[in-house]
């Protein structure tokens, strides 16, 4: 005999590895997200090696969005025996396909490097979590569903996706379970975006839920107004490129943040404020992700769709160049004139951006500008916190370049956005509310805020915690 329960196998008292397993009275297992743990030091490999449940026992995956901390263990799930369907929006399918392949290629390359070192010390070779072939095996399992339509997965089990406004294709996931004449709704927020986002529509309202799982990344803070971002960005361009004649280096995630930057730069170009400054996007994944974003204008807000009537491509302008090869990336080091270089990753912990920082950190004319959340131990956080010296590729570098932070650019809602997201719900009707995807101290703050709003059972689950649902 089974009882309805939910188990939290990731993003529990941390912001990464999103994985929540809902078990129904009939024994069916539904997995909300299947994310990769990232940036947790030595524990990371250990956490990614074991799900905390049997992959083959999962019947369905309901994927909220394509970010790797939500989708990145899907190839391992399939490799370990999952044979069900993975439901998501059309844009999430397109983005996840390229992101999972990229994740597999990074693991393959990292493993080659690690195994060279291991071989020298006589250690056995290290196996990657999954290969590019494993990543490709996920695609046939995707089944896409549109926003705001209840969809029957099997008798007594309906699913609806509502727009979460976080990245292109992101969704909050709602499950309606009808058993023994009783209907129960479980809602999972995924990652909640910002209201009045510059590109995307605001998060949707959703039907009353009995149980809610909500993210809390910024559950204790407020963001600056996103509408100031083009002017703030222009301030850094003016100071670095026009006045100091230096290079502006911007670490940015390939999905979401890079497209926002291109949108702002396009606005500045249209206002003739770039003055011929060249902009280089040095990330093959960013180019692919930008193409996916452009192919889903149905996710854009009214303001952007209106702009597209007069500017058909709001992410492109004269002077913008995407690099394709490693050779082209290296050539950027030879450029003497002022320019803007945008490269991944956003926390500056991996990818080509590290090479650009090494090449430009020693010149006071240059600026390294952080534009998104950085995990406290990351290189990006150290630069943002004005560290006088940083370690990159095993060597120490004095930070002579100027460093800056733009806090207005976040794809995650702050506590006002999260409260607005929940404002369509009657707190008295919510039996339990689970706070996930946040640092523990932030979650405890958010828990207090939610209790003040009238939510009764607000729980901050620990890793692998199991909670019974009525």
Give a structural overview:
- It is a single chain.
- With 470 residues, this protein is α/β, with parallel strands linked by helices.
- The chain has 14 helices and 22 strands.
- The chain has helices at residues 43-49, 68-71, 74-79, 90-120, 132-136, 229-243, 257-270, 284-294, 302-307, 326-331, 353-360, 379-384, 415-422, 440-452; strands spanning 5-10, 19-23, 29-32, 60-62, 85-88, 142-144, 151-154, 157-163, 171-179, 182-188, 211-215, 247-251, 278-282, 320-322, 339-343, 367-370, 389-392, 395-398, 402-405, 432-436, 458-459, 465-468.
SSE blueprint:
Layout (H helix, E strand, L loop, with lengths): L4 E6 L8 E5 L5 E4 L10 H7 L10 E3 L5 H4 L2 H6 L5 E4 L1 H31 L11 H5 L5 E3 L6 E4 L2 E7 L7 E9 L2 E7 L22 E5 L13 H15 L3 E5 L5 H14 L7 E5 L1 H11 L7 H6 L12 E3 L3 H6 L7 E5 L9 H8 L6 E4 L8 H6 L4 E4 L2 E4 L3 E4 L9 H8 L9 E5 L3 H13 L5 E2 L5 E4 L2
Parallel strand pairs: 3-4, 4-5, 5-6, 10-11, 11-20, 12-15, 12-16, 13-14, 13-15, 16-19, 20-21
Antiparallel strand pairs: 1-2, 1-22, 2-3, 7-8, 8-9, 9-10, 17-18
Helix pairs in contact: 4-8, 6-7
